[in-house]
Design brief:
Blueprint lengths: L5 H17 L4 H14 L3 H12 L6 H14 L3 H14 L4 H13 L3 H15 L8 H16 L6 H9 L6 H4 L4 H4 L5 H15 L12 E5 L2 H10 L10 H17 L5 E5 L2 H10 L9 H11 L3 E3 L27
Parallel strand pairs: 1-2
Antiparallel strand pairs: 2-3
Length: about 325
């Protein structure tokens, strides 16, 4: 479970920083997660310090770090510095969608909708030249642009139509992004309130949260040899993994269920017994404790070890069978 109090966020940030010291090769994604937790704990200067520490070196994603820093700075009164960073990002035209979207959402959060829409249009012009399928961050950007344009009462253009096609939830995107929706929250009509509850549930998986910037919801995959070794050493975990075939089926079924619920940015992380045992030791917990498994998956994902799911139907299946995804787990859940 994710922390839900400032003290818990501070504790989690400290844990991530300790992990970064143990795994210097994964320092950047771990620092970004720690900074997000500091923001949620209300320690915005502390988050800025982490962003600055990353930027003082040679980060892999400087535009992403700077966009997050700008969003954080503006929240605690450093508007001029945040604007300067945002202007710099727009001039440099990053090739990744995430910095553009974070920058636009920062402008939106401070009621600068026209500037946010212009930023996302610049990004779409740059990023939508590549053939489909679009990567998830670019899809998210197009959908965010649709939402802001709805608030500005702008007519649909081709990219709004694309956003409609990309949106697969039951509630249509125009309805989800209707700026008049807030009115229904004050309605006395049970049908209107129920409709809004349905829309909100659909919306949950659409928006990027502070802890998923960029952060996949990841599921553990134990290759067969690793799973055999794990269960031989810790038979208490057999309840979690009755057979290898069931393990693979559960992975695909879980990811499909999350996808159908609208959860974005899904991934699979490859587990190994040595790294799991090292993680358990770092948490002062015995590896036989099944509650440790989701934490292990989250930490691997935070260290940028996740592989995006689903692969294309013609790509190799994530399970390592040697078949394409379409021939293997991309066919039926029971495959």
């Amino acid at each position: 479970m994710r922390p839900d109090t400032p003290a818990a966020h501070t504790t989690e940030a400290e844990r991530l920083l300790r992990t970064a010291a143990q795994y210097p090769g994964d320092r950047e994604p771990l620092y970004l997660q720690a900074a997000a937790h500091r923001e949620l704990a209300g320690d915005r200067p502390g988050a800025t310090a982490l962003y600055d520490e990353l930027l003082s070196g040679e980060p892999a994603n400087p535009h992403l770090i700077r966009s997050l820093k700008a969003a954080n700075l503006w929240e605690y009164g450093h508007e001029a510095e945040a604007r300067a960073i945002i202007d710099g990002i727009r001039r440099e035209k990053p090739a990744d969608a995430a910095p553009w979207e974070i920058t636009a959402e920062t402008l939106e959060a401070h009621d600068e909708l026209e500037a946010a829409e212009a930023t996302l249009t610049e990004a779409a012009t740059l990023l939508l030249q590549a053939p489909t399928p679009l990567p998830h961050p670019t899809q998210s950007l197009v959908i965010t642009r649709h939402r802001i344009r709805r608030m500005l009462a702008l007519p649909h253009d081709d990219w709004d139509t694309l956003a409609d096609r990309l949106h697969t939830a039951a509630v249509p995107l125009d309805e989800l992004h209707d700026p008049k929706r807030l009115w229904s929250l004050g309605s006395d009509d049970p049908a209107e309130l129920q409709a809004e509850i349905t829309r909100l549930r659909s919306e949950l998986g659409t928006y990027r949260t502070a802890l998923s910037r960029p952060f996949p919801v990841a599921v553990l995959h134990w290759p067969k040899a690793e799973l055999d070794e794990l269960l031989a050493a810790y038979p208490e975990l057999e309840a979690e993994y009755p057979t290898y075939r069931a393990h693979l089926t559960d992975i695909e079924a879980s990811l499909r269920e999350l996808s159908q619920a609208g959860t974005p940015n899904l991934g699979i992380v490859r587990a190994t017994v040595p790294s799991y045992e090292a993680f358990a030791a770092s948490e002062s917990t015995h590896p036989s404790n099944s509650d440790l498994l989701p934490q292990y998956a989250t930490t691997l994902a935070a260290r940028a070890r996740a592989t995006a799911w689903p692969p294309s139907r013609d790509a190799g299946c994530w399970c390592g069978s040697g078949f394409t995804y379409g021939e293997c787990h991309g066919g039926t859940v029971s495959a």
